[in-house]
Design brief:
alpha+beta, Penicillin binding protein transpeptidase fold, five-stranded antiparallel sheet, elongated, transferase
């Protein structure tokens, strides 16, 4: 028994000695590795504190239209020119052991690991200021082991080569504070309109909280979250002896005056467009703010410098400078959806809110071409007649009423054709058509036209009471202009990274969504807005600008009490214009009511100077016949007015107009007319007769 015990003891001792030897060897190798890393870092010397590259934005001809702000170069502030309150607040919330550690806070790392293991998720960070500075200077923000190891190596090099003051100064000048402000100086100027050296304790605590999430903790974007974070920072500063309880309470009660404007604003080409490009970089390429602003990208855009200049010039000339009315404008290439010009307001420096892309406003009668496309799908034609007269629609067993009106309360008090109803913008015809088709029809049809804004299933939807964006309307009209092919607004054609590698290349869409013959029929009906042959109880809605136009156009105007629209296209170019007040004020000034039409017509003419004049080409599945505009029937030699009108093949009228036939034998008796058959839809819905 003693022999066996002795044997086991010797065997255990053997394993223990082996373990100790292996551990010592491993420890020695680890020490050698660490020493080797430090020696290698020393040999490499101080890492260059390179300034991140600016991102360039280029127009469709390669002209540079914008360059991202290079905060480190333009706003660098010496550590002595940064308020001690901000340095203290930053150290307290980001790295309270900054002056004690040599780049890594091992205690904090251990705590973060335990917290992550407990939560089974990444819930706590442990990066020091030195590590964050290394990441900002030398690395991408990808979450990989390679990046973590490189970050650690660069941190060692920084700590070996630079003083704590230099590292802190560099960090405070490179960190992103949101709204394009890189560094403490730029952020202080933007948020509080003062230099970084002048920041109060309350301002510094507010500013120090932003880098954790610029979009979440900005006092301009999320005041409640920003104030909660400020309170947290002041509490941490008090815990670590940076401020007294009295100082913290006074800072919390301080009334901060936010500015939200860069002091050194640079006038740039198409600022609203460039904002839209940056938004597209985030949403389509999933790039973060720092990469967009400082990643050295080359962003090739769809902007046409000539069209943009024409748009800005036209808006400036057409709209009174002292008027508070605003504008949203988009020009688009219908073949590929490229946005070639964009204006989101009268003055970007006064209001960067992009009314062409962000505002949702009632489109009024500009929605009618989409409604009539839906009607054509259900058997209507440009010659389909409906009675235009004051009408009250009753719903819910008579408990609800809706009484739409025509402009100036003018009505045909008789039947009019769809072609004439569109040209005169007859509201009664539109609502009757909408109700006949069913309220779901238009809601579903606008989706086919690429409109994603939610539409309400109500009778007034036919008159454009559900809002949409200017870009959405321009895109919808582009699908009519290109024969029904899928499009979507495109701002960026290609993006290259700082090495010149292509990281994004736009793919054009060519899927056929609409029926080409019906898209053309609607397009041709929209040309009637400028054709006086369709004058009836009122003039065609484009009558005031007809004399300004020198080429074929299809268009539609629209108006509500608070919105004025004009949108339309030639075969090569689409433009949509909205004018109105930001807060829904009624447009009462007669001149202001005409802004949209005048901007549209002047832009379309000047922007296409030198371009070939093209007409709309009918597809094979259509038939063009001459009709008498009022009746929609085939015109005879005796009809005083004839208009070429296109129909989907097989739906063209077969009955001739008899209203203008001469008397027979000198008598005043009219020629006997064949008995007219009652159309099927009039039997079901008597109000159409």
């Amino acid at each position: 028994m003693e022999i066996m015990t002795d044997h086991r003891f010797r065997k255990t001792g053997k394993y223990l000695r082996a373990f100790i030897i292996i551990s010592l060897i491993g420890l020695a190798l680890t020490i050698l590795l660490i020493i080797g890393i430090f020696i290698y870092a020393k040999i490499l010397g101080p890492p260059p504190l390179a300034v991140p590259q600016s991102t360039l934005y280029l127009s469709n001809d390669g002209t540079v239209i914008g360059e991202s702000n290079n905060g480190e170069k333009r706003y660098w502030a010496d550590i002595t020119d940064i308020s001690p309150h901000l340095t203290d607040a930053t150290i307290a919330i980001e790295d309270k052991g900054f002056y004690e550690h040599h780049g890594f806070d091992y205690k904090r790392i251990g705590g973060a690991v335990l917290a992550d293991l407990k939560a089974m998720a990444k819930v706590q960070g442990a990066s020091t200021i030195s590590q964050q500075y290394a990441r900002n200077l030398f690395l991408e923000h990808e979450k990989t082991w390679k990046r973590k190891l490189l970050e650690a190596f660069y941190t060692i090099r920084l700590e070996m080569s630079y003083s704590k003051e230099q590292i802190l100064e560099g960090y405070l000048n490179t960190i992103y504070y949101g709204n394009g402000a890189y560094g403490a100086q730029a952020a202080s100027q933007y948020y509080f309109g003062k230099d970084a050296s002048e920041l109060s304790l309350g301002e510094a605590a507010m500013l120090a909280g932003i880098p954790k999430g610029p979009s979440s903790y900005s006092p301009l974007a999320s005041p409640e979250k920003a104030e909660a974070r400020q309170k947290r920072i002041l509490a941490v500063m008090q815990e670590n002896g940076f401020v007294t309880k009295k100082d913290a309470n006074e800072a919390l009660s301080e009334q901060l005056k936010l500015v939200g404007k860069h002091q050194h604003t640079i006038t740039k080409t198409a600022p609203y467009f460039q904002d839209a490009v940056r938004a597209a970089l985030k949403s389509q390429l999933n790039l973060d703010d720092r990469t967009i602003e400082m990643g050295g990208l080359r962003v090739f855009t769809t902007l046409d410098m000539n069209k943009q200049a024409v748009a800005e010039k036209t808006i400036g000339e057409m709209m009174a400078e002292d008027s508070e009315i605003q504008v949203g404008f988009v020009a688009m290439n219908p073949k590929n959806g490229y946005i070639e010009a964009m204006v989101g307001g009268k003055d970007y420096t006064e209001s960067p809110f992009n009314r062409a892309l962000q505002a949702i406003r009632q489109p009024g009668s500009t929605i009618k071409p989409l409604l009539y496309y839906a009607a054509l799908e259900q058997g209507f034609t440009p010659s389909t007649t409906i009675r235009s007269e004051p009408t009250t629609f009753r719903f819910d067993d008579g408990r609800a009423e809706y009484s739409p009106r025509n402009y100036n309360s003018k009505y045909a008090n008789g039947e009019i054709t769809m072609a004439q109803a569109l040209a005169l913008s007859d509201n009664i015809y539109a609502v009757k058509t909408h109700l006949f088709l069913g309220e779901d029809a238009l809601v579903n049809t606008v989706k086919d036209f690429g409109i994603t804004t939610k539409m309400d299933k109500v009778p007034s939807l036919a008159l454009g009471t559900s809002g949409l964006r200017v870009t959405e309307l321009a895109n919808a009209y582009s699908m009519l202009a290109n024969g029904g092919k899928e499009t979507s607004p495109v701002f960026i054609t290609k993006v290259e990274d700082y090495k010149g590698d292509v990281i994004f290349d736009a793919q054009e869409k060519h899927a056929q969504v609409l029926k080409p013959e019906l898209a053309f029929v609607v397009t041709h009906m929209m040309t009637g807005v400028f054709d006086t042959k369709l004058n009836g109880y009122a003039s065609v809605t484009g009558a005031t600008v007809i004399d300004q136009l020198t080429r074929p156009y299809a268009a539609k105007s629209g108006s509500t009490e608070t919105d004025s629209w004009m949108a339309g296209f030639s075969p090569q170019l689409v433009a949509a214009v909205w004018t109105g007040y930001d807060h829904g004020k009624k447009i009462e000034n007669v001149e202001e009511k005409s802004y949209a039409k005048n901007i549209w017509s002047h832009f379309m003419e000047e922007a296409q100077q030198g371009m070939a004049v093209k007409s709309f080409q009918p597809p094979k599945e259509t038939v063009g016949v001459y009709v008498e505009p009022n009746s929609g029937k085939l015109a005879t030699e005796d009809c005083p007015v004839k208009r070429l009108t296109y129909f989907a093949a097989g739906t063209e009228p077969t009955e001739y107009c008899t209203e203008h036939l001469p008397d027979h034998g000198g008598t005043k008796e009219p020629a006997k007319l064949p008995k007219e058959k009652t159309p099927w839809y009039k039997k079901i819905f008597p109000w159409t007769s």
